[in-house]
Write a structure and sequence with these properties.
Structural class: mainly alpha
Family: Belongs to the SWEET sugar transporter family.
Mean pLDDT: 86
Shape: globular
Organism: Lanius ludovicianus
Function: Mediates sugar transport across membranes.
Number of helices: 8
Largest sheet: none
Protein name: Sugar transporter SWEET1
Strand content: under 5%
Low-confidence stretches: none
Number of strands: 0
Number of domains: 1
Membrane topology: Multi-pass membrane protein
Order of helices and strands: HHHHHHHH
């Protein structure tokens, strides 16, 4: 819905950039975990997710009047991804790499899902759900539940979390 709003209004006003960026970082992290583990489902889902989030970032950048802060945030994300790749590829031995990356991905995902709690506080204070997207809430619940079940099926605690 945010992308549609950007394309219709040709403006990024009232649309936050950080969710696009953090979701892209999350997809890239899980893509790395999937590649390391050799899990085709993780690879496919997160490759598509990262491609879509990168597209959203490019559209946001195109319509953003202040391109410098957006580019700086993207460059910061790239620096974090490259640093993370270097850490996991060079500094962590092969046996513990999957464990460290899985733990990182789980913590990052939890943090990403906790950030909308600020909206929940606003809902409680205002006693109105106008700022919440019901379809997004349901979709997030279904997707999270699906990943939990998939993680349980694989006996992978990081995916389960």
């Amino acid at each position: 819905s945010d992308l549609r709003q950007i394309l219709v209004t040709k403006s990024v006003e009232n649309i936050q950039f950080l969710p696009f960026l953090t979701t892209d970082a999350n997809n890239l992290s899980w893509l790395g975990y999937g590649c390391l583990k050799g899990d085709g489902t993780l690879i496919a889902v997160n490759a598509i997710g990262a491609a879509l989030q990168t597209l959203y970032i490019l559209v946001y950048l195109y319509y953003s009047p202040a391109k410098r802060p957006v580019l700086l945030q993207v460059l910061l994300l790239l620096a974090v991804v490259v640093t993370g790749y270097g850490y996991f590829a060079i500094l962590v031995d092969t046996r513990t790499r999957l464990t460290h990356l899985g733990l990182f991905c789980s913590i990052f995902t939890i943090t990403m899902y906790l950030s909308p709690l600020a909206d929940l506080a606003k809902v409680v204070r205002s006693k109105s759900t106008r700022c919440l997207s019901f379809p997004l809430t349901v979709t997030t619940f279904v997707a999270s539940s699906s990943w939990t079940l998939y993680g349980l099926q694989l006996h992978d605690p990081y995916i389960t979390v």
